[in-house]
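Protein folding task:
====================
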Amino acid sequence: MDELYIEATKSSPLVKFDPKNNVLEIVGESYPENAVKFYAPMFEWLNNNLGHLNSQPLTVNLNVSYFNSSSSKALMNLFDVLEETFQKVGKITVNWLYLGENETAQECGEEFQEDLEFLPFNLVKIENG
């Protein structure tokens, strides 16, 4: 699968795919002025690459400490795409990472988890450090 790299800004997260380890990461805060435009390259990458999952599983790590409603919609669209692919080929795991003291991030992860029927979605508490 092809590499993906979208640099983080003050209002948007880092989005990168490491082809050596098959890990897609989204890290940072997400409140871009136009979330659809910001996430469009990621969805294009997903459309072009998810069909090429081979024997190596895909891990998606999200560590998004804050996001606005349009970013929430983009994340739900991401989970929908991943769940659809998981139902066809399996081999996808999502890890929602949150700081222990960030109850809001934990609750958001729990809500996303509840909305998914098949996709493995892990809540991963991380400590400051």
Notes: Residues 69-89 form the longest helix (21 residues). The mean pLDDT is 93. The chain is about 40% helix and 25% strand. The longest strand covers residues 92-99.
